[in-house]
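4.2 Preliminary Data

To establish feasibility before requesting continued support, the project team ran the inverse folding procedure on a target of 845 residues. The structure was first converted into the token representation described in Section 3, and no sequence information of any kind was made available to the design step. The complete token record follows.
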């Protein structure tokens, strides 16, 4: 074994040039994988530890009863809508035997404003809470200053203080559901030892400001309970459970619930990142396979000679596997180091998508390292074992013959098997679309092994089909380039597979992004009639001061203003977005396309439903809110909503919604201007909006253009991840091209000997790679269009009602893929063109 190790090490060192790009591909794949795992562990671990530390003194929590099924918030399946507690609940809890302390906790919306601009961006929520005097129950710890004691004083978390450069004594403003309030910062606090609560920006108020600022009911959102020492907590929980109109949660259970709630919004991100990591690894596997397949082919006669003098098959196989293990181990170790060091880079890339991540030191677990190391080394060994096993099984006499590295003929059985799988994939996609069954979409995945099996036949057919075109376009160089593809169909197909996977992923996400953008913006493009629109600071939370609508309407050149407010309620056991509108003003500025009933009847306490079923008219709809239940007749059915991710599916009169849930911030304002006064009115409205934090000004054209732009930043992040995967694929193109050139050095020497110039030699190599890249990218795009179409058509639902294929973007993708392939082959082509003719002709093929 030691002799085999030394022999493998010498072989790797002697051929270190050919393994550099292979090792780089493995390193990048492992680095991406371990960075994803570490980032995921860091987010979950930091949130779990912060919440456990902050709530360590809370033995139980009394909350309102859950309305409907667990899950809530428009589009957020992890949140729950709860009924409000009784106003005297805290006093009743405090009198329960065994309770040492009980503290009311009010929670609402509060956004910090400094010098007229709101503080904080990204996906973190802006939260207002009351400051709890009992240090055992207060999850926040003062780091400077003092607690707020009267209306107009606030404490902010350290994250907000750092973002805005604030300290105790600073004068700020706070935007809440009741308007903008002047405030003085009296202190800065941490959430336990963290700068902020997970995915939140918190403003802490005195109890006296809760009613006026947060517009909450007299009853708290929840009651935090401290059980006396020496008392059986289970018995106390039993006594608390006897309280009517409330639900009691054990402290440890509450901590776990809060930990899950803090990390669940980012689970989709982890899935996305892991998907890209898997793709990167798969691309790396194809590169490793190609490298060792060509390496083993070059040693064909050497292997035959070793077998002839007594070497056993397992020794030959073991030698190649040890080489692969050495390369894989070195590259994996480098990838682990780069991955751990690159977590902050990945965090920064995710931040480009507008996604707020938990901060803090990275948590590097042994499990993450073990998984990444196993994948890196294991994938390398497995990819090298397949060609090594094939070479070891070759009889010595055949290996010693001067035969080609691989047969030119394509196996009919292999091609037939691939065609069967392709037919199954196409049939599965068709059935999935016809039956709207997600199960049948799984059959579409058979297209990948189908392409692997049919790859040599496809490359051969493409090479023969393009021979005439290549000859007309590039003369003899084009004919030679097309012939080279057909001469090594397996190698060409396996090289194309890496680029094919990268192109397919780019295409699938491009189709998904275009379809989602179109779906989000369709209602706006068709329905918007207002001249101007005022939008909230974020797409997820209403942030417009309700007083702004009145100030705009008072302008002399403004005809009318219609506000849209949104609240969450339970309809048929499911949390939905409920819109509050002026049924007279809004239809003149946004066409909801009524198909039954009259929106004017909303003012009589009715409700309008978004849908396409006119028979709903005349029914009764029950909507459960935190404070009350609204039972209203369905007086209208409309075909469209107001657009965006949080577009309401139900509309009621604004006054009805305010009476049911309390005062709300506005999500959108639609503004109609007087005829002929657009320019002056726009200037006046823009000035008012600029002076109102939490609101943004848009013309009709700007609002239509930005419809669906919420996913633009995330699409940029996806493109960045795909760029990395494509870069790894291009490394494979460059590596395989270099190895193939080395394998065919005698052929190139002969071409030079019969008169081919260095320029023509470079041109042949570039044309060969260009043809291969075109075939690979075309197949990848075609495959992804079919798979993406079926997947989105079946699983898109109401959120993505139609599939939009961005043909222009796909055309650019095709051009970029071919160009990048040619660029990747430029250096190997240049190197071979500089080798002297006699040296090329004398190399062992």
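Position-by-position output of the design step:
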């Amino acid at each position: 074994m030691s002799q085999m190790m030394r022999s493998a090490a010498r072989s790797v060192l002697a051929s270190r040039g050919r393994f550099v790009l292979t090792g780089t591909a493995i390193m990048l794949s492992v680095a991406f994988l371990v960075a994803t795992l570490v980032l995921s562990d860091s987010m979950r671990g930091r949130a779990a530890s912060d919440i456990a530390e902050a709530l360590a003194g809370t033995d139980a929590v009394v909350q309102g009863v859950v309305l409907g099924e667990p899950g809530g918030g428009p589009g957020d399946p992890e949140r729950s809508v709860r009924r409000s507690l009784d106003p005297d609940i805290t006093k009743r809890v405090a009198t329960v035997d065994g309770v040492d302390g009980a503290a009311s906790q009010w929670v609402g919306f509060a956004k910090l404003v400094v010098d007229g601009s709101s503080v904080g961006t990204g996906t973190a929520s802006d939260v207002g809470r009351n400051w709890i005097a009992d240090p055992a129950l207060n999850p926040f710890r003062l780091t400077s200053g003092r607690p707020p004691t009267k209306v107009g004083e606030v404490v902010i978390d350290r994250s907000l203080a750092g973002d805005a450069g604030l300290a105790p004594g600073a004068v700020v403003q706070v935007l809440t559901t009741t308007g903008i309030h002047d405030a003085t910062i009296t202190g800065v606090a941490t959430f336990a030892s963290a700068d902020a609560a997970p995915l939140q920006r918190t403003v802490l108020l005195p109890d006296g400001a809760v009613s006026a600022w947060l517009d909450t009911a007299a009853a708290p959102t929840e009651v935090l309970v401290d059980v006396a020492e020496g008392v059986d907590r289970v018995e106390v929980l039993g006594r608390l459970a006897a309280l009517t109109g409330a639900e009691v949660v054990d402290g440890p259970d509450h901590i776990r619930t809060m930990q899950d709630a803090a990390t669940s919004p980012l689970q989709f991100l982890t899935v996305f990142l892991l998907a890209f990591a898997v793709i990167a690894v798969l691309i790396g596997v194809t590169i490793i396979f190609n490298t060792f397949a060509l390496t083993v082919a070059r040693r064909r006669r050497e292997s035959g000679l070793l077998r002839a003098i007594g070497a056993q098959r397992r020794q030959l196989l073991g030698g190649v596997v040890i080489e692969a293990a050495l390369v894989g181990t070195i590259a994996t170790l480098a990838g682990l180091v780069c991955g751990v060091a690159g977590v902050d880079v990945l965090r920064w890339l995710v931040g480009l998508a507008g996604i707020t991540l938990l901060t803090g030191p990275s948590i590097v677990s042994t499990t993450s390292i073990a998984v990444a190391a196993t994948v890196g080394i294991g994938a390398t060994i497995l990819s090298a074992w397949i060609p090594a096993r094939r070479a070891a099984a070759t009889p010595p006499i055949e290996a010693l013959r001067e035969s080609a590295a691989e047969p030119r003929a394509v196996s009919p059985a292999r091609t037939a098997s691939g065609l069967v799988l392709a037919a199954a994939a196409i049939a599965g996609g068709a059935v999935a679309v016809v039956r709207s069954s997600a199960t049948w979409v799984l059959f579409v995945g058979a297209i990948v092994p189908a392409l692997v099996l049919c790859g040599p036949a496809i490359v051969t057919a493409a090479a023969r089909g393009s021979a005439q075109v290549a000859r007309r376009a590039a003369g003899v160089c084009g004919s030679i380039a097309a012939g080279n593809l057909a001469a090594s169909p397996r190698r060409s197909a396996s090289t194309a597979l890496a680029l094919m996977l990268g192109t397919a992923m780019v295409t699938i996400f491009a189709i998904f992004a275009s379809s989602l953008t179109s779906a989000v913006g369709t209602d706006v493009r068709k329905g918007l009639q207002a001249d101007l629109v005022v939008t909230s600071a974020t797409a997820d939370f209403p942030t417009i001061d309700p007083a702004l609508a009145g100030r705009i309407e008072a302008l002399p050149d403004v005809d009318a203003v219609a506000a849209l407010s949104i609240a969450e309620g339970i309809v048929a056991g499911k949390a939905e977005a409920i819109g509050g509108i002026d049924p007279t003003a809004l239809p003149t500025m946004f066409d909801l396309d009524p198909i039954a009933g009259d929106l004017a009847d909303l003012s009589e306490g009715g409700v309008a439903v978004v849908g396409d079923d006119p028979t709903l008219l005349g029914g009764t709809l029950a909507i459960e809110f935190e404070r009350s239940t609204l039972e209203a007749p369905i007086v209208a059915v409309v075909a469209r909503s107001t657009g965006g991710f949080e577009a309401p599916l139900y509309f009621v009169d604004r006054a009805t919604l305010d009476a049911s849930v309390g005062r709300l911030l506005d999500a959108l304002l639609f503004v109609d201007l007087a005829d002929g006064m657009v320019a002056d009115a726009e200037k006046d409205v823009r000035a008012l909006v600029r002076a109102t934090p939490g609101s943004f000004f848009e013309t009709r054209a700007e609002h239509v253009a930005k419809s669906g732009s919420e996913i633009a930043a995330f699409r940029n992040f996806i493109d960045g991840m795909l760029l990395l995967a494509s870069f790894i694929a291009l490394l494979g193109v460059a590596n395989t091209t270099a190895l193939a050139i080395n394998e065919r050095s005698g052929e190139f020497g002969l071409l030079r000997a019969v008169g081919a110039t260095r320029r023509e030699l470079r041109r042949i190599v570039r044309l060969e790679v260009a043809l291969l890249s075109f075939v690979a990218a075309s197949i990848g795009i075609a495959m992804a269009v079919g798979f993406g179409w079926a997947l989105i058509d079946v699983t898109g639902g109401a959120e993505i009602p139609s599939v939009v294929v961005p043909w222009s973007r796909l055309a650019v993708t095709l051009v970029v893929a071919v160009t990048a392939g040619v660029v990747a082959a430029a250096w190997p082509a240049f190197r071979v063109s500089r080798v002297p003719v006699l040296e090329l002709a004398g190399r062992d093929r």
